[in-house]
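Give me the 3D structure for DUF4123 domain-containing protein.
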Amino acid sequence: MNRAYLVLDSSQIPDLYPRLHQLSPLVLPHALYLTTRYAAVASCGPVLVRVEPGSELARTFNAEWQTQAGIWLETEVAETVLMAHMRSLIHVRLEGDVTGFFRFYDPRIARMWLRDLPTGERDQLMGPVRVIRLPEADGSPLLITQHTPDQPCAQYTHTPWLRFSSLQLEQLCRSKREQFDHHMVAHTLRFFPLCLQGLDALEQQQWARACQRNAARQGYSAEDEVLCWTALYAAFGDTFPDGPDHGDYRALLAERGVSPAQRLVSLINALKRHIDLRGPVL
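Predicted structure for DUF4123 domain-containing protein (282 residues):
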């Protein structure tokens, strides 16, 4: 009989452990980075937890976490066996024997990774997992099932058994970039719709890519940073921060002894003052 589990991203869910205790007091979460070389950062890594369909935890997962902060698994094997296999997937070997974290528990990555794999290869990677339930990009359900059960279960080792070629890595990165483009466009349509008024889908994507390049020139490339930068780009366009009226912003960007995150907050606060004093610039 299949049992259901969640692999949750504790870096994406604030106060994950208290939330789990509140939603399912008897649940026992397992931090997958524990007993690995990454134990020091276990508090912000993936967590495996049993879930009962129809429970409060299941409803919370479906309502809040399934799109970007975790995946739903079903298996017949013992919890310890499943945990061992999931732990073996936390890192991957890249070309040149470089080791990197692998966020297989991000549903967007899991969807890109597993959906187009040959059946035999996907079955082997799933190991003891019989079913993975994921949302499509439009929110519709995607069911990935194992066609050949009784696959061997992998064990964690300091050297990852899972390998990605440069082509596989590029495909994952390209798909992730495209997903972020869509996220940026949706964010801009919500908060700065005039910037995209009259643009078709391709032109909207090009605007999002231009904003990302503009942010990257100032050292901002993380998704949350770029979303903040969107406000600046929406206000001033591609000349920012080199335009003749951007001197105050250039001074903030050049300020010494300030972290990039603090500098970004200062830039947004300066923009808010600019809008308060002169009215919207859009």
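Residues 170-278 form one domain. Let me know if you want a second pass.
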